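Input for the complex:
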Amino acid sequence: MSDPMLTLTALDAHYGDFQALYGLDLSIAAGEVVAIIGANGAGKTTLMRSISGLLSNRPDAISYQGQDIGALRADQVAKLGIALVPEGRQLFPSLSVEENLMIGGKVGRPGPWSLRKVYDLFPILEERKAQASTSLSGGQQQMVAIGRALMANPELILFDEISLGLAPVIIRQIYDALPGIVSDGMTAMIVEQDITKALSVSSRVFCLMEGRIALQGRTEDVTHAQITAAYFGVDA
Amino acid sequence: MSTVTRSTRASRIAMIGGGLLLLVLAAAPYWAGRADMRLMSEIYLYLSLATLWNLMAGYAGLVSVGQQAYVGFGGYMLFALTIFGGVHPVVAVLLGGVLAALLSIPIATLAFRLKGAYFAIGTWVIAEVFRLSFAQIQALGGGSGSSLPVAIVKEIGAKKAVREANSYWLALGAAVIIIAAVYAFLRSRRGLALTAIRDSETAASGLGIDIWRTKLEVYVVTSAFTAIIGGLIFLQKLRISPDAAFSVNDWTAFVIFIVVIGGIGTLEGPIIGTLLFFLLREVLADFGTTYLLVLGFVAIVVMLKAPKGVWGLIRERYDLELFPLSYRVRTKD
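Predicted:
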């Protein structure tokens, strides 16, 4: 593996008294696509929130491109080139589709992504650009959320529950778009409930259970039985 | 065929109607009596305070109970700068705004450490510090206050009629400028970021928006304009005292009442709220404290039954928007 782009060292996360992550160690190289799987409550979203700065950590718990970012705020992390496509999309309901996308571009990082390129990726959004973002279907809203993150021209993009609650045909459209996104050399972490989908696009997989990494490996090396065991915490 | 626009027929009618109304109001010194002009000036100044508080609380989420600090500060700066600095009253009012902006920065860094209810109480305490501090300044009359010298009052206009017309126009102008500026700001790119923060702080910060800084900018600008309005209020009153200048009742409680019953987080809300407030006040003027009881009762009923305020009710029922900030799909058959 080349120099890691992102390294987590003994990452803990707490919500008050409740500990959600226990000493997570993992590292990702530039250009990798990594899948994070696990049951509900395993800590996947907490992991995404920690990396993107929405949860504060020890400075050295998270290192990105050689810089300790664990204690940075979310807006500082975003400026360094980490973008989150949050669970539940979290579009801005008062703003139109295009304004949502423009907010994504507000960090002003240089790079290939522009309104034009997002509209090329998801043409439906151009047709709906002046509409209120909440008037869109769930799948189209997810496209806005992805486009909004891409507008920031990130180097690392985090997809939290990329397909949760979407119709199968929409999920296929979004997965069809993924290669076009990561082919620019973008690094991606994908949190996904659908294990088969997650494995189909990723080169490595991490399975979380109760805040710890229960299984990790190259996608082609892990067996279905291993994943089932790690996912449910039982021997299959 | 359907098209998507911001403007609606209602908003265009409102625009034309608003323009005509403005002309009529601007001509008030030629058709209205002295008492009516005073009342209308007061309405404009309250409308300005409410619009500013609404921007700060309804959009930036900064629920301050201490904006009377800036009203009083602006008022006192008018007196201090004209009496000791020999500055023209209008210039003094504007300078008061600039000074308030400078002063609001350290205050914000202090108050922003507090969240929610603690922020509200913290800002109130800071305003009390202002009141107590200005009561110590003997040159400005200490605790009993002082009046604006006649020579300075005459700089607004040598004759009483001219003076009254000028201060009426100042109040009207301030309200128009503030509403127009807030509207333009909310439609600008920075306003976009502020609206995004109001919709979802998490998503906004995840996209690189510095929430603290954006809120600071809103707080500073709001405080500066609040001080300018404070200057204009005491230019009308011609007399200032710490209790009147830093009154939480007059400059914050009534303003919150206006914004809440009108509809917080909308531009139309403060306008409707101001009209309702003055309607209630004029109707109940002869009932003494009963008037305050009724205000409290109305506020409670509105908060329970129509948390989006009167404008929220109207908007839901008739799908109206006079200051178009959101988009809508229009279907043509």
